[in-house]
Amino acid sequence: MAGCLGAGLLAGLLQREHGQAQSEGxxxxxxxxxxxxxxxxxxxxxxxVKQAGLVATRRNGVRIHYRLAGEDVAALYALLQQxxxxxxxxxxxxxxxxxxxxxxxxxxxxxxxxxxKAGTATLMDVRxxxxxxxxxxxxxxSVPLDQLAARLAELPDGVEAGAA
Length: 164
Hints:
Shape: globular
Number of helices: 9
Order of helices and strands: HHEHHEEHHHEHEHE
Helix content: 40-55%
Strand order of the largest sheet: 1-3-2
Radius of gyration: 17 Å
Largest sheet: 3 strands, antiparallel
Number of strands: 6
């Protein structure tokens, strides 16, 4: 189970939980890429975390969609990150490379939606267009990551901007 956690599978699901209206991910999507694993290996790891009770599933045809089993799983993952930072110096460098610096303001989903609704923030969904079409935060602009630099001029002036 620790290998799955370190591979980024729960991190990918955690980001989905806090970054999309539909808080699920299928194995064939960016979850395998985020973990840096092949599809078969990712599926095996997800079966292991499902057996451990950390994720729940929903089947849609041949696709299986995964989501965190609860907020307690997100809390467990946060605690594991804290322990890893305290006991391994390289963990902080890896965390910063993957998630960015800690001084970035973190918002709850509700806080973000309030800002978007009030017009004081713009949220960009930087996932591929097909993933965004499958489910996204209301009000988010679809700006796939590979188009981000070219489309920055589309953002309104004087408004905070964030990406999910």
